[in-house]
């Protein structure tokens, strides 16, 4: 077990229908004890795994889900295969009833197969669920997703949106690192990932400090918390988080939102484009482009464009949805050549 001295700061008294703005905009992780304690799903799960399963099935859309299925040998660790050419699990299309039936079948097994349904849109797959189990957030564009499975370990990764993760059934342990720990977490490929986001290659259950020596430095900045049913955690944008589900049935519902409109796209796409167009330039040219990015992207200043008439500034003006669409169309045409 990792030795982590710092616990995530806890905030008591938050309610699902009234989360303070200072919590929603926190730059540090926050544990919100009892935030969803009144959800019917939480009550069902505390009575039994069967009742929680039946409650979820009462909202089943009938649409098949995408599940990650792995042999008992992986011990719940959703990860790569030995040479990072693929993964240690298979994707399968299963119905919710089949997923929950398998979880019940293996609930008393000491070495069950791994079954993990990740990031599934609540409104599409569990219509009506949010009428009784929901958060009231000022950002109406927040996306609610459900995560269902048995014991699992999800490697440290970041998400661009801010995230409130609600532990509805089972217990979950979160280990978090600030964004500046990128170099100490030994991140794997960015174009072949188990679930879309780059992940740390360090196995938190048995860290190989000879292969990953700087991971010890990452642990100095780590924060940890174990959530009980009814608890939630706010994870700020770009914070690394390792998530371990601890029970035979675990259900988490999370809410993602971003501080900028979705039409602006995802920064990871920009990073990949930068690798394509900039990384292999000669060092002196990369330095010039670094200055250009600093000028136009990372430290823009109104003075930089004050000499250009406003109507002639094009993409140097604030980006609206129509301009974003034009940029995407232009990029698609150029990238297809």
TrEMBL record:
Domain (JmjC) spans: 115-272
- Give the superkingdom in one word: Bacteria
Q: Which Gene3D superfamilies match?
A: Cupin
So which residues are the signal peptide here?
A: none
Q: What is this protein called?
A: Cupin-like domain-containing protein
């Amino acid at each position: 077990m990792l030795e982590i001295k710092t616990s995530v700061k806890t905030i008591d008294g938050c309610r699902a229908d009234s989360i303070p703005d200072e919590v929603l905009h926190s730059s540090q992780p926050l544990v919100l004890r009892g935030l969803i304690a009144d959800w019917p799903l939480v009550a069902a799960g505390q009575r039994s795994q069967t009742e929680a399963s039946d409650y979820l099935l009462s909202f089943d859309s009938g649409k098949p889900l995408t599940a990650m299925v792995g042999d008992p040998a992986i011990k719940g660790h959703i990860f790569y295969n030995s040479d990072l050419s693929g993964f240690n699990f298979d994707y399968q299309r299963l119905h919710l009833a089949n997923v929950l039936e398998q979880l019940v079948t293996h609930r008393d097994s000491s070495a069950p197969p791994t079954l993990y349904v990740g990031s599934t849109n609540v409104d599409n797959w569990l219509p009506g669920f949010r009428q009784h189990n929901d958060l009231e957030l000022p950002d109406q564009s927040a996306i609610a997703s459900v995560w269902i499975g048995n014991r699992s370990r999800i490697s440290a990764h970041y998400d661009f949106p801010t995230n409130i993760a609600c532990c509805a059934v089972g217990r979950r342990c979160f280990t978090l690192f600030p964004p500046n720990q990128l170099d100490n977490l030994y991140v794997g490929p960015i174009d072949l990932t188990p679930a879309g986001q780059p992940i740390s290659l360090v196995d938190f259950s048995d860290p190989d400090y000879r292969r990953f020596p700087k991971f010890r430095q990452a642990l100095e900045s780590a924060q940890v918390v174990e959530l009980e049913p009814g608890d939630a955690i706010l994870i700020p944008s770009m914070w690394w988080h390792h998530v371990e589900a601890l029970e035979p049935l675990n259900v988490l519902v999370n809410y993602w939102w971003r501080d900028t409109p979705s039409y602006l796209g995802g920064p990871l796409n920009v990073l990949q484009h930068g690798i394509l167009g900039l990384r292999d330039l000669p060092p002196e040219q990369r330095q010039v482009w670094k200055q250009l990015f600093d000028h136009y992207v990372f430290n823009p200043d109104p003075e930089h464009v004050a000499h250009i008439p406003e109507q002639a500034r094009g993409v140097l003006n604030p980006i609206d949805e129509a301009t974003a669409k034009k940029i995407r169309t232009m990029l698609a045409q150029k990238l297809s050549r």
